[in-house]
Write a structure and sequence with these properties.
Blueprint lengths: L2 H19 L1 H15 L3 H17 L3 H9 L1 H21 L3 H18 L2 H10 L4 H30 L2 H22 L9 H8 L15 H5 L2 H33 L2 H24 L5 H21 L3 H30 L4 H11 L5 H13 L3 H21 L4 H5 L18
Helix pairs in contact: 1-2, 1-7, 1-8, 1-9, 2-3, 2-8, 2-12, 3-6, 3-12, 3-17, 4-5, 4-10, 5-6, 5-9, 7-8, 8-13, 12-13, 12-15, 12-16, 12-17, 12-18, 13-15, 14-15, 14-18, 17-18
Organism: Novosphingobium indicum
Pfam family, one: MFS_1
Keywords: Membrane, Transmembrane, Transmembrane helix
């Protein structure tokens, strides 16, 4: 197998694995653990929040480690950190140690994917990097489809959540070994900015534009503030839904198995929506797609709040996943179009940092469930938040003025709004 194919295989496998074993499946395992260990729902939500918080805080680490020890060892270290988190989770009886475990999972996720892989694919596939990175994200997202079903099979057949964590620890070590064997740097990482440049589209001068935006000026623009706010609301609701959907559907009377199916359907819909939205944004205004995605998520949350029927809840999960994929991808496309490819990587990183506030969602939802006995009131609140975000997008989301004054024209006469990262 050619080396670039080996790199693609190992990077995609790592992203598939971390997606399958963390955010999308943790909610299922937590449902079983909370019942056996008599934890409060707020405490369970905090463990989920720590996973997301660790991902956000550790996000500067991959470029630094890639410069120090190379991408191969960075991804290998990420898999080992994941394995350590899973191993601790398999042995815990105290909530504090589970907090340590989920924190390690978050750090391991960040080191294994996606930042190192994006750099690898951009340098190993210079002419088709956009296409390969698209395939990479689709494969990684599909881990969210498989994860809940894998957990459901292991826990359902054995009744032992500890065995699940132990199996995942062994698998994490094996994935790390595959990364160690297959991954090599096509271009040695000399500086941290080198990694950020590839993520922002600077690997190819054709992606640069003449908008005149700097990161500092863009951060102060009302347009970015609106986009960051919307993305934070979306990420908060998505994170909370991953942590509560299984438990919520279980309260409808048919146990946790339908919740695992609903979680997989949500991930499947989100993956498909992201793939389709990318093509649709080339022909239609991404702002309208963003608004439609937010409205669809709000409707799905309202449906989850109001329905007592498992089948309808599963349909709501599909609608939510579709809206999530539409809103999340179109928001990133808008950042690229409004501020240009030259700083898109930095602006995306800043928006992602802002979404770290989303970790408060699972804690709040857990507290509401402890007080009321149900996650339904939290879902009503999230529906209202998404409706508010929809209204903000309709009323206040506009192309920044400097972008309009620059006539959105690049040096070669093409509209900046049409620029996409070159393959």
């Amino acid at each position: 197998m050619p080396r670039n194919a080996q790199v693609m295989f190992a990077a995609s496998l790592a992203f598939f694995f971390v997606t399958a074993t963390t955010f999308t499946s943790l909610g299922y395992v937590l449902y079983t653990m909370v019942a056996e260990l008599s934890w409060s729902k707020a405490a369970a939500g905090l463990s989920f929040s720590l996973l997301g918080l660790a991902c956000g805080i550790a996000s500067p680490l991959p470029p630094v480690l890639m410069k120090m020890i190379g991408t191969r060892l960075t991804m290998f270290a990420g898999c080992l950190v994941l394995a350590a988190g899973f191993l601790i989770a398999s042995m815990i009886s105290d909530l504090t140690f589970f907090f340590v475990a989920t924190t390690l999972m978050g750090i391991g996720f960040t080191l294994a994917a996606p930042s190192p892989a994006v750099y690898l694919l951009a340098t190993w596939f210079p002419r088709t990097s956009a296409r390969m990175i698209g395939f990479y994200f689709m494969i990684g997202s599909s881990g969210g489809i498989a994860g809940p079903l894998i957990v459901g099979t292991i826990v359902g057949l054995t009744g032992d959540w500890r065995l699940h964590w132990l199996v995942m620890a062994i698998c994490a070590a094996l994935v790390g070994l595959i990364c160690l064997i297959c991954v090599r740097d096509a271009t040695k990482v000399e500086t941290v900015e080198q990694v950020k440049g590839v993520a922002g589209g600077d690997a190819n001068p054709a992606t640069r534009n003449a908008t005149g935006w700097t990161v500092r000026k863009a951060l102060r623009s009302p347009t970015f503030m609106v986009l960051a706010t919307i993305m934070t609301v979306v990420q908060m609701v998505v994170t909370t839904t991953h942590s509560t959907l299984v438990a919520h559907i279980a309260t409808l009377g048919e146990g946790a198995a339908p919740g695992a199916i609903a979680m997989s359907l949500l991930a499947f819909a989100g993956t498909g929506a992201k793939g389709i939205t990318g093509a649709v944004c080339e022909r239609h205004d991404p702002r309208r797609i963003l608004i439609a995605g937010l409205a669809l998520q709000a409707a799905a949350m309202a449906l989850l709040w109001s329905t007592p029927v498992v089948l309808i809840a599963c349909v709501a999960a599909v609608l939510f996943g579709t809206g999530w994929g539409m809103a999340w991808l179109s928001a990133h496309v808008l950042i690229l179009r409004y501020f240009g490819a030259a700083i898109a990587g930095d602006m995306t990183a800043m928006a992602t940092t802002a979404t770290t506030l989303a970790v408060l969602g699972p804690i709040g939802a857990g507290r509401i469930a402890d007080v009321t006995g149900s996650y339904a009131p939290a879902m009503l609140i999230f529906s209202m938040l998404l409706l508010a975000a929809t209204g903000i997008a309709i009323l206040f989301l506009r192309a920044p003025k400097e972008n309009e004054e620059a006539a959105a024209v690049s040096e070669n006469g093409e509209e900046v709004g049409d620029l996409v990262p070159a393959e």
